[in-house]
Design goal:
The protein is an alpha/beta fold. It folds into 2 domains: 5-178, Rossmann fold; 196-310, Diaminopimelate Epimerase, Chain A, domain 1, CATH 3.10.310. The chain has 13 helices and 11 strands. It has helices spanning 13-25, 40-44, 65-77, 92-100, 113-120, 128-139, 146-155, 161-171, 180-203, 226-237, 259-265, 283-290, 294-310; strands spanning 5-9, 31-34, 52-56, 81-86, 104-107, 205-209, 212-218, 241-245, 249-253, 269-270, 274-278. The chain has a 6-stranded mixed β-sheet, sandwiched between helices. β3 (52-56), α3 (65-77) and β4 (81-86) form a beta-alpha-beta unit. α12 (283-290) crosses α13 (294-310). The protein is globular.
């Protein structure tokens, strides 16, 4: 199969907005693919030799770094190219390995992923600054641009890459205004969230790990507002760390603790205030959780984080 032009980006607003900005600057993108960091090597594996690939708003996980490097080497050694924009915290060793594999990597932790694309890629036109502002407002926990609250809920309206690609291509023409479709979907989402937050507060648990108070919650796949949940949990319980668990991954949020270092020990990464990692619960726990014993999965997730914080003590 001949090479193609593809974008691989994160699944949240920052990833979708990053894709939209790349779409503004690059003619004829064949595929827009979405991934979590721990899935990046698998998604890269679907890209044919000799392709032109743009990666945005995705860091590497130490647990899959070598697989990512191998896929980059395959693409670049066959005449393709990999241009990578990210804003997460990278270890120097990770940067060296990805660059040695042939990727043109830009890491800038001073802005969000969309901000990195806008800053280092030839993106122009009305609405670029506004899209970056709205996106960074949510992704960096600034909450200083009201449009971000609308766009984040719009991105999370449906599961799947088809919807996210639709939104990305729509945001190519974003001019700073919130149209009727976005407003309607966002308002419906807020109504659902208000009911959800009561459930979150009721079902969350508190635990102490060393000097830290950790509030932890098991998030179903149908809930898309991880950052909002984290913010509410930290505020409601006065906790140091918010842990949001899922079947195959976890998210950490904090205002004072460097949760990136915790996530890194679990094979993940991210930012000091917001990070995540893949997890592999035992099959028995997953089966029992699906049968209704969800507390087993939540407690297992908390234990994994506690071990990462204490060094296994």
């Amino acid at each position: 199969m001949a090479g193609i032009k593809a974008i691989i980006t994160h699944t949240d607003l920052d990833g979708v907005a990053s894709a939209a900005l790349i779409l503004r600057a690059v003619d004829t993108i064949d595929k827009v693919l979405f991934a979590q960091p721990h899935q990046l090597h698998a998604v890269l594996g679907k890209i044919p030799n000799g392709s032109t690939v743009y990666v945005a708003d995705l860091g590497v996980n130490p647990s899959t770094l070598e697989k990512v490097v191998n896929e980059i080497s395959r693409i670049t050694s066959s005449g393709g190219s990999v241009r990578w924009f990210d804003h997460h915290v990278w270890d120097d060793e990770w940067i060296s390995k990805v660059k040695e594999a042939g990727a043109d990597l830009t890491v800038d932790t001073t802005t969000c992923g969309a901000g990195v694309v806008a800053k280092y890629f030839p993106v122009s036109g009305d609405g670029v600054e506004e899209l970056v502002s709205a996106t960074c407002s949510i992704d960096l926990w600034l909450f200083n641009d009201w449009r971000g609250n609308y766009l984040a809920r719009y991105v999370g309206h449906k599961e799947g890459g088809e919807w996210r690609e639709y939104v990305a291509r729509k945001l190519v023409g974003f001019n700073g205004e919130i149209d009727d479709e976005v407003e309607s979907i966002a308002k419906e989402a807020v109504s659902r969230e208000l009911r959800l937050y009561s459930k979150v507060i009721k079902e969350a648990r508190l635990g102490r790990v060393g000097e830290y108070v950790v509030v932890y919650y098991l998030k179903p796949r149908t809930e898309h507002v991880t950052s909002y949940i984290g913010n509410i949990l930290l505020s409601r319980y006065g906790a140091d760390i918010a842990l949001i668990c899922r079947e195959g991954s976890l998210s950490l949020r904090s205002r004072d603790v460097n949760v990136r270092e915790i996530a890194k020990k679990l094979g993940g990464g991210g930012h000091p205030a917001a990070a995540g990692a893949p997890v592999r619960p035992p099959l028995l726990i997953l089966v029992l959780a699906k049968l209704g014993f969800k507390s087993l999965l939540l407690n297992w997730c908390f234990k994994k984080v506690a071990e990462a914080i204490t060094g296994g003590r």
